[in-house]
Amino acid sequence: MNQTYDLVGIGNAIVDVISHGDDSFLDNMGIEKGIMQLVERERAEILYGAMKDRVQTPGGSVANTVAGAGTLGLKTAFLGKVKDDALGRFYAKEMIDDGIAFPNPPTKGEVPPTSRSMIFVSPDGERSMNTYLGAGADFDEGDVDASVAGDTRFLFLEGYLYDKDEGKRAFTAAARACHAGGGRAGITLSDPLCVDRHRDDFRRLIAEEMEITLGNREEWLSLYRTEDLEEALAQASEVCETVVCTRSGDPVIAIHRGARVEVPVTRVTPVDATGAGDQFAAGFLYGLATGQTLEVSARMGVAAAAEVIAHVGPRPKRSLRKVFAENRLI
Fold first, then answer.
1. Cβ–Cβ < 8 Å for 236, 206
2. Cα 124 to Cα 210: distance, rounded to the nearest angstrom
3. What is the pLDDT of residues 91-102, one digit of tens each?
4. What percent of the chain is modeled with pLDDT above 70?
5. b/e sequence 236-271, b meaning 16+ C-beta within 10 Å
6. Which string of DSSP letters, residue by residue, matches 233-299?
7. Which residues 6+ apart lie within 8 Å of 74 measured at CB?
8. Is the dihedral of CA 47, 50, 51, 56 positive or negative?
9. pTM for this structure?
10. 214 closest CA partner among 191, 238, 181
11. Given this model, what pLDDT does residue 242 score?
């Protein structure tokens, strides 16, 4: 079956606003280092005002993945919800300008403002995200364009959006449309706290609707309520065709139908860790979409992640094709 798209993502359409902040600044502002915190609109405005060297880009975890995969030549689309306000129009335009189909027009009327995340990058490269879940978090089944979700080889879903019942219904509808069209569905677990809040629903979704699941060590341990990573991955592999675990500086583990590979990473101090997991997913999914082996796909993910942590911002600034060529992956 010849689908129009190689990769369609669904996630929270967030405008990322990135700035620098040392540990003293984070303490003074009451920001917990290294995690994603949800903030209300008033808090978001205060933090935005405290940012001195803002860099504004369209973001969202899976949107970043889709953008990275698009730079490699995959035909992509992103389903997300923004308000018809300045940030929402900025988001839609930037995605389209980047060659990513954005079928959902900015929403008019009584909806929350467009989502935004204030990201403070510490001198050690750690990111502290303060996210206002505006319009994007209200993505529901009615926002799923089945003609797009059902016309892709790979569908990739963002765990953050699973925090609301509307998102859960949307994911199920999208995955079923994808399968009806002959595609494969995958998800990134996104955050261990999110997994902890919705553990049973995540496990049900993965077992019933997903062929691919990506997560880091903490997310997998949270999902299966264990301190033994091997136990968690074994349970996941019983119900999901392809399972991947990233482990910061330790080798990436990838398992496909029982076959396992471990791919080493080079330990470096990141300039900005924002987007590392997102671009790992971009490289890995590109590998799968182009028929690479599990090991090569994982190596592509590692190379893409290494590129993005070398600069500020969650999307590649160098051609990933050039990065892959340097690593003898293409």
1. yes
2. 35
3. 999 999 999 999
4. 99
5. bbeebebbbbbeeeeebbbbbeeeebebebeeeebb
6. HHHHHHH-SEEEEEETTEEEEEEETTEEEEE-------S--TTHHHHHHHHHHHHHHTT--HHHHHH
7. 6, 7, 286, 289
8. positive
9. 0.90
10. 191
11. 98
Residue 302 has φ and ψ, to the nearest 5°, of -60, -45
Q: Which of 143, 102, 76 is nearest to 281 (CA)?
A: 76
Q: Which helix (H) or strand (E) holds 120?
A: strand 115-121
d(CA 211, CA 187): 9
Give the C-alpha separation, 286 to 289, whole Å: 5
Say if residue 276's pLDDT is above 90. no
Of residues 127 and 107, more confidently modeled:
107
Residue 256's φ and ψ, nearest 5 degrees, are: -130, 115
Pick from 76, 130, 85: which is nearest to 105 by CA?
A: 85
Q: Quote the tokens at residue 72.
A: 């490699």
Q: Are 260 and 244 in contact (CB under 8 A)?
A: no
Backbone torsion region of residue 248, taken as left when φ is above 0, otherwise alpha when ψ lies between -120 and 50, otherwise beta: left
Residue at 315: amino acid letter: R
Place of tokens 């790979």: 154
